[in-house]
Amino acid sequence: MRKGFTLVEIMIVVAIIALLASIAIPNLLRARITANESAAQATLRTISTACETYAAANNGTYPDAESDLLPASLGGTADPPYLNKAYNGVTESGYKYAYTWSGPGTGYTVTARPTSCTTSGTKSFTVSTGGVLSTDVSCTAAS
């Protein structure tokens, strides 16, 4: 008598593995997207806190550029620094960050857009003067 597996048995095992993979992979992708979105919101809150703290220390005048928040080692002018990393134009955890300054010392808007609306995030986030965080559920990928 021969020992081993028949072709039918092997095909059944492969089918079961494929079924399990088809269930698990979308859940893992969704978990990754959720983690990226949470990280983007946390980063925007960090940037907003830095801008608001800067304004509190400068008689209500907001920064005019990200360099006002960074240490000299990163090309900034802040001492002590409000941020320990530059975010403008940087992609991190699937999101690209961009600053918009309202005018000399009057306010800021920072956006976080996913690099891909299918694999890195499904929402865009914006934080503006006063620390107001908003969500745009119609995904617009960063270019």
Number of strands: 5
* Portion of residues within helices: 25-40%
Contiguous low-pLDDT stretches (5 residues minimum) are none
- Tell me the Rg in angstroms: 23 Å
How would you characterize this protein structure?
- This protein is α+β, with helices and mostly antiparallel strands and 143 residues long.
- It has a domain at 7-49 and 86-136.
- 36% of the residues lie in helices and 20% in strands.
- It has one helix and five strands, in the order H-E-E-E-E-E.
- The chain has a five-stranded antiparallel beta sheet with strand order 1-2-3-4-5, covered by helices on one side.
- A hairpin with a 2-residue loop joins strand 1 (91-92) and strand 2.
- It starts with 6 loop residues before the first helix and ends in a 7-residue tail after the last strand.
Question: Characteristics of this structure?
Answer:
143 residues, alpha+beta, five-stranded antiparallel β-sheet, elongated
Secondary-structure map:
Layout: H1 7-57, E1 91-92, E2 95-103, E3 107-114, E4 124-128, E5 132-136
Antiparallel strand pairs: 1-2, 2-3, 3-4, 4-5
Summarize the structure.
With 143 residues, the chain is of the alpha+beta class.
